[in-house]
Design brief:
This protein has 15 helices and no strands. With 381 residues, it is an all-alpha fold.
Amino acid sequence: MSDTSVDPNRAFVRAEMLTARPAPGLTVGPIAWMRENLASSPGNFLLTLVGILILYKLIPPVIEFAFIKATWTGTNGADCRIAGFGACWPYVVDYLDEFAYGRYPFAERWRVNTVFVLFFALMVPLMIPKLPHKGWNALAFFGIFPVVAFFLLVGSPTLGLPIVETRNWGGLLVTLVVAVTGIVASLPMGILLALGRRSKMPIIRLLSVVYIEVWRGVPLITVLFMANTMLPLFVHEGQSIDNLLRALIGVAFFSAAYMAEVVRGGLQAIPKGQYEGAMALGLSYWKMMLLIILPQALKLVIPGIVNTFIGLFKDTTLVAIVGLFDLLGMIQATRANPVWAAPTTMLTGYLVAAIVYFTFCYGMSRYSQYMERRLATGHKR
C-alpha cells in the first residue's frame, strides 16, 4: 500500500477558514423578495398579475387628470374649461383657506394655526418611543392641550379672544376636532365597557352588554340625527347644546361600543395563568388590570384599535348631515359658486379630499405596524 494515502482522521479537518461568500442571489435581495411575496404560488402569481392590471388601469388616468391635462393658472372656471378638462388647481388655491378653516374669521385664524402646531408638536414626541419624559409629554397632550385648544378655538373675552361660534368652523379643522376627540374619548370608554362586559357583577355586565349591542346595532348617521334632536331635550328650557358638541358626543359614544369589542377580544386572548399569577401576588383587581392584563391585551389588539381609529376618521364626513361642514362638506359647498363652474372643479376637490384622507389613514396604519414590530415579543430595544 502506498504511503501517500490520506489519514482518515484528518480527511475532513480544514486547516484554514474559508473567506465569506455572498448569499445566493435567489435567497436575498429584490428578486428573492418578489419570489416570496409576489409569486410564492400560482395563486399568488395570478393575484399579482391582476393587481398590476388594476394599477395599470387606474394610475395613468389619475396622473393624466392631475398633472398632464391639468390647469395650473386661472381666475375662474372658464380657464379650466379650455385646458383639456384636467384638474382645476386654481380652484383649489382659491378655496384653500376654506378647505382648512371653513368660515373661521380671517383675523383669528392664527389661533387655529397655533392649535395645529401645538397638536403636532406634542403628538410627534409622544409617538417616538426613544424620546424621554413620556409622562410629562402625555400630561401636556391629554391634560393641558385640550384646555388650551378649547379657549383658543372657541375664544374667551377674559383672555381677549373674541368668541367664534362653531357654525363658522369648517374644513380640515372640523375633521380633526371630531376625529381626535372621538379617538381620545372612545379608547378609555371602550376599555371600561370591555371590563364591564367581563365583570362578575351581573348589573355592570348587563348594562355594558346593553350599551354595546344597542350602539353597535344602529348606523352612525342615525346616532348623529338622534344626538342632534334628542340631546337638547335633556337641558333646561331656553338652553341649547352646541351642534358640534352634539356630534362629538354621538361620535364618541358610538366609537366606544366598537372599541369595547376590540379590547374585549384582547382580554379574552390573555392566558388564564396571567390572571391567576396576578391574584397569587395579592394584587387588587384594578392593579391586576392596569399593570398586567391591559398592557398585554392592548398590545395584541393594536391592529383592531387602529382599524377603528381609521374608520372613525373617515366617518367624520357624516357630520355634514347635521349641518357641520368638514373638509368634504366644504368641498360640496363650493358647488354653489358659479365663478368656478366647470366640469372638473368638483372632481379636483374630491381628489384633494382623497389625498388628505389617505395621508392621515395611511400614516396611522404605518405607525401601528411600527408599534406592532417594536412591541413584538423578543424585540431588542
